[in-house]
Each structure stands twice: as structure tokens, then as C-alpha cells.
DNA sequence: AAGGATCACAACCGCGGGGTT
DNA sequence: TAACCCCGCGGTTGTGATCCT
């Protein structure tokens, strides 16, 4: 018997999520919490399969997610954990609060792997590359391993020397990071700490329902949702502190399909639960 | 300035594990 | 025990952004 598809693919939407879909998913999750993913699309009025909804929520919309590049210490931890666990991204992610397996996997493949190869280290074994892949030009060029990785010249275990070495950024890497921080990319290290008292909470404006943005970026959707003066792309503590300001009501999070605000009433018990949830994340 | 190459990351796909019947 | 269902994981792909020539 063949495996049943995760969902009926006919008529279901694929590809990038729109702001409208994000709204629906966030509204649903905040109202109902996590329930059966398979049933969620129907209940939330989405033309997506449950799997797609789960991914979108866990990898992108969850309010406790950190955004931005991994910090140096996070990167160090990822390398260390990868040496122990291999490509078990979800296990690795469980050690990094606010980071998802997908995010870590992507960061590994695009940044860390490259760094390691550059330094003559096999990203799979975490050991110095001894016989370079002749097809890999970069490896060929770079395979004069940095002395600190040569086992004979180091009293450290391979993993330990690797971790310390990889996080000692090369001049080039520093340039890269500078470039990134001057572009639109955000590194969590670069985000200034904000005192909670500095956060302004703006009451919901009734004329702000429509947005011209069709992008699926979390920034735009969250602006659309009119979260009070909140930037979800930065530190989540700040986000949640914003949520817990006196003026803030959980009802403000909920927006009707046609853009009207406050159409969904939250049960006081659920409201309390939501706040507990937010407080829990703060701790 | 234009177009191709490369990069970065969101999203998809298929499989396996675990729970339930 | 087998069949089924759902969820989560890891690999891969698609696409927009950026860089380079």
C-alpha cells in the first residue's frame, strides 16, 4: 500500500508565503495554540498543507525566534555540537534557544562549512584535510592547514582546536561581517541593547489595516499585524517586553481576514495563558 | 549599465520514527 | 503484529539579492 500524501495537493498553494497567509496563520496559532497540523489549514482558512504551515510557523513566525546572523558564541556552539552530533540539526538547534534547525543548517552550509574548508578542515570529520579532493579548487588552494590544526603541533583535541580556531575570525571574515553590518543584514551582535523603558508602545491605529507589501518577510507581516512598535527581527526579549506593556492587549494581535481589527474575542483564561507564555519566554 | 555568476535562505520533498487502532 | 496516521528531520531546490566583469 502506497504512502498517503501528507495532504491533498490539488488546489493547494505552494511557494513563498504572502503577508495575508502569515496573518491567518499567526492569528490562528495565537488563538488556538498548536493543534493538529493536518487540520490547521482548513481551520485557519489557508490553502496550504499542514506541513507547510508547520514549517512556516516553526522556522519563521514563532515569536520566540531570534533573527539575524548567529553570534560568535552561537557559531562556536554549533561547531562543537556538530562535532559531537553530526548533521542532527534539530538536536543542535535544541541547544540554541530561538534558533531553528533549518536556520542552523543553512548557516552551516553557507558560512561555517566554507570557513572550515578554507582553513583546511573537513567539515564532516572536523579534522584537518589530509588528502584534498582534486576537484575542489578551494580545498587545493587552502590545503596548507593552519599550523594550529596540525595534530602534532597542538596539544588540544581536534575538535577543541577546531572550535577555537574557527571562531578566531580571519581578517577577511571580519571584513565580511563589517560589510554585512553595513548592508541591510542584521547581526545579533550588532543590535544595541534597549532598555525596556525606551520602548514606545503605540496604540493601534484604525487606518493601518492595509499594506501595499506583498513580500513574505516577517517584518512586513508583523508591521501589517500592527504589533505595538515591535521589531521581531531583533532581540526577542525586547519583543516580548513590548508585548507586555500595559497598553498592549492580546486582542490587538488578532486581525480579521478582511483587515478589521479586534474581531476575535479572547477568553480571559486564554489571554492569561498567552501572557504566561510570553512571560515564560522572557525567563 | 547590463548581464551573468554566486550567495543566502526560505520552502519543499521524501523518508523514518513513534503513537494509535 | 500490522496497518495507518501524523509529525519531525535532513537533504535538496528555487528564487531573490548581491557581487563581479
Automatic annotation (TrEMBL):
Disordered: annotated segments: 117-178, 201-221
Ranges of Polar residues compositional bias?
141-164
Q: GO terms for biological process?
A: carboxylic acid biosynthetic process; regulation of DNA-templated transcription
Query: Residue ranges of the Myb-like domain?
Result: 9-61, 62-112
Composition skew (Low complexity), residue ranges = 205-220
Compositional bias segments (type: Basic and acidic residues): 168-177
Its localization reads: Nucleus
> What Gene3D superfamilies would the database entry show?
Homeodomain-like
Domain of life, per UniProt, equals: Eukaryota
State what protein this is by name.
Transcription factor MYB20-like
Q: What is the lineage of its organism?
A: Eukaryota, Viridiplantae, Streptophyta, Embryophyta, Tracheophyta
Amino acid at each position: 500500500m502506497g504512502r498517503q500524501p501528507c495532504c491533498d495537493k490539488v488546489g493547494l498553494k505552494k511557494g513563498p508565503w504572502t503577508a495575508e497567509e502569515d496573518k491567518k496563520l499567526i492569528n490562528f496559532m495565537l488563538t488556538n495554540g498548536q493543534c493538529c497540523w493536518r487540520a490547521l489549514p482548513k481551520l485557519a482558512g489557508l490553502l496550504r498543507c499542514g506541513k507547510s504551515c508547520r514549517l512556516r510557523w516553526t522556522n519563521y513566525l514563532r515569536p520566540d525566534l531570534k533573527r539575524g546572523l548567529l553570534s560568535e558564541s552561537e557559531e562556536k556552539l554549533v561547531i562543537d555540537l556538530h562535532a559531537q552530533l553530526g548533521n542532527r540539526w534539530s538536536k543542535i538547534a535544541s541547544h540554541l534557544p530561538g534558533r531553528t534547525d533549518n536556520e542552523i543548517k543553512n548557516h552551516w552550509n553557507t558560512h561555517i562549512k566554507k570557513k572550515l574548508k578554507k582553513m583546511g578542515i573537513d567539515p564532516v570529520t572536523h579534522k584537518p584535510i589530509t588528502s584534498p579532493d582534486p576537484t575542489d579548487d578551494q580545498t587545493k588552494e587552502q590545503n596548507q592547514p593552519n599550523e594550529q590544526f596540525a595534530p602534532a603541533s597542538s596539544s588540544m583535541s581536534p575538535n577543541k582546536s577546531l572550535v577555537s580556531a574557527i571562531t578566531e575570525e580571519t581578517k577577511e571574515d571580519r571584513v565580511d561581517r563589517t560589510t554585512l553590518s553595513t548592508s541591510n543584514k542584521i547581526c545579533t551582535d550588532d543590535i544595541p541593547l534597549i532598555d525596556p523603558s525606551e520602548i514606545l508602545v503605540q496604540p493601534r491605529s484604525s487606518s493601518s489595516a492595509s499594506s501595499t507589501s506583498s513580500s513574505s518577510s516577517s517584518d512586513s507581516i508583523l508591521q501589517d499585524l500592527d504589533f505595538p512598535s515591535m521589531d521581531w527581527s531583533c532581540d526577542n526579549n525586547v519583543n516580548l517586553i513590548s508585548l507586555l506593556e500595559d497598553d498592549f492587549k492580546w486582542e490587538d494581535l488578532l486581525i480579521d481576514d478582511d483587515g478589521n481589527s479586534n474581531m476575535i474575542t479572547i477568553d480571559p483564561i486564554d489571554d492569561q495563558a498567552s501572557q504566561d507564555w510570553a512571560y515564560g519566554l522572557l525567563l
